[in-house]
Design goal:
The structure is a single chain. The chain is of the alpha+beta class and 185 residues long. It has a single domain, classed as Chalcone isomerase. It contains 3 helices and 6 strands. It has helices at 4-26, 68-75, 166-169, and strands spanning 51-56, 61-66, 90-99, 110-122, 133-141, 146-149. A hairpin with a 4-residue loop joins strand 5 (133-141) and strand 6 (146-149). It is globular, with a radius of gyration of 21 Å. The N and C termini lie far apart (71 Å).
Length: 185
């Protein structure tokens, strides 16, 4: 015969298991997202630990990261040597809203709320009609802790497909559509 303690313990275990499953079901898998024409968040898995290429601003704080293919290309002199980036080169740009550094008042701003993540991948076959690059922008919603593909209603507006960045990046066509420079270390 089961004692009250065993029954209560079993009941608590069941409740905790149900809550754990509900949390797992409700938590977004950002790597399941994609933009039309096939560019998926999952193609950039691990971007959070890629090497920093540069920083950027423009109302937001941003860091531009690159996978090893991209970093090696920069180190070999691309695009300054006139060669294109190789297929497989990837970049991620993470934007945050800025806030004042409370620990050091008057010092530079620090990242606050995540705003969005932008991606670029070089794949000359897949993206032949957009300079060989595929683009994606995913907006972050802090209250729900979820991402979604960018849209024309976002700032800046996004065409919401894998070619969303080509019109802007055409300005950097001479640098293989890449604005970012790899800073001396």
């Amino acid at each position: 015969m089961m004692t009250k303690k065993v029954l209560i313990g079993a009941g608590v275990a069941v409740i905790l298991a149900v809550l754990d499953v509900r949390t797992a079901i409700s938590a977004q898998d950002k790597y399941g997202l994609s933009v039309p024409n096939g560019l998926a968040f999952s193609e950039f898995k691990g971007y959070e630990s890629w090497q920093t290429i540069a920083i950027s601003n423009g109302g937001m704080l941003a860091v531009i990261l690159g996978n090893q293919v991209m970093v090696d290309a920069y180190k070999s002199g691309i695009p300054g040597n006139g060669k294109p980036f190789p297929n497989g080169a990837k970049m991620a740009k993470i934007h945050w809203a800025p806030k004042n550094n409370q620990a050091a008042p008057g010092q530079p701003l620090v990242p606050d709320t995540l705003h969005d993540v932008d991606f670029m991948v070089k794949d000359s076959a897949r993206f032949a009609d957009s300079g060989g690059w595929g683009y994606a922008e995913f907006e972050y919603d802090s209250p729900s802790d979820t991402f979604r593909p960018g849209t024309a209603a976002d700032h800046p507006p996004q065409r919401n497909d894998a070619k969303c960045g080509v019109s802007c990046h055409t300005l950097a066509k001479a640098k293989d559509y890449v604005f970012t420079e790899y800073a001396k270390r």
